[in-house]
Model the fold of this input.
Amino acid sequence: MTNPEMTGRREEPVATAASSVAEALVEMILGHLSPGASLPSEAELATQFAVSRLTIREAVKMLEGRGLLELARGRRAIVREPDGAAFNDFVVSLIRNDPKGLFDLVELRISLETMSARLAAKRASRAGLQALESAMQGMRDAAVDYNAAIAAGADAEPADRRFHDCDLQFHEALATASGNRVVAFLFEAMSNSLRESFSMSRRGQTLRGSTREDTVIAHQAVLDAVRAGNDRAAGEAMRQHLTDTERDIRSHFSNTGN
Done:
């Protein structure tokens, strides 16, 4: 009888075996291999899992599709650095197509960033504080440039983009200062979706009569509490800021009729 694995046909036994091997490889990668490390050869893996090299090849392709491995002709598969691109794409798509998705994101941020601020107040290093202060200064400078451009009747968009960039840098620096690698990874993975939410929040803030200076003040309150090592005040300042952000987004959608 012809062995379906040897014919190369995509029959169910091969797919099932490849899926099982793929899950075992995930455990190997996450438990024992660092980014940049090579997997064993196809022959070694085939012997280890008692399957054909075709099955190993299928399993490895599955993990390439999941962003865990990098493949190149003539080389063993390489473990990739963690990549949150798929998660980021999902959240961006969600908030663009469903207004409720944006409120889901804010709800997540309230929980996550309140914890992040409190942990940063307990753990922030000198370098972490410097990163936060640098982002704050960038926000201040961009706010000044934005107001100057508006007063002069010039294009204020570049200053506005810089303001949002520094705003994002502040939140990412806070996540890093928390010392929690999962929190830091999540914020890096959500960078594009956060930019989308900042833009909508800004429109709502303008409708409510608030300014970029108000945003700077809110962030400064978080930084002051982190610098003082007051975790409760840091968490409360962040919660208040994000509650205001949610209010701004609601104002934006009320104005657009969504």
